[in-house]
Prior knowledge:
Elements lengths: L5 E7 L9 H9 L12 E4 L4 H13 L3 E6 L5 E4 L5 E4 L7 H7 L7 H4 L1
Antiparallel strand pairs: 1-2, 1-3, 3-4, 4-5
Amino acid sequence: MYREPALIWITEWGIWGSSENWHLYYKLRQSYGDPRLLHEAPGHLFLGHESEDLASFLQLAMLNGWGGYVLTQVDYVNAFFSHDEYIDFFAVLDKNLEGIRKEFGTTECQTKSSAQ
């Protein structure tokens, strides 16, 4: 399990308004002592020991129909999650994606050149 700092950066919201639970999001955010609005601070940095907290924020963002990124230190493995219900994983080193492929049971690798 990755145990370094990671950033959740929300880049899309308001697309599926009926699915958004702003009250729950702001209560969760306020539990960290952060009263700012999403558009004021769309990112939240999680320390290595806060992986469960990161998972909670990510789950809520996805349930709200939001999109954004999970960005890891030194680009170990990053993810883009879409409001259209998919996740893309990417990394500078292809070998860092082996655990993701194993977890999801796939050996497919789409590179930038094969995606075009």
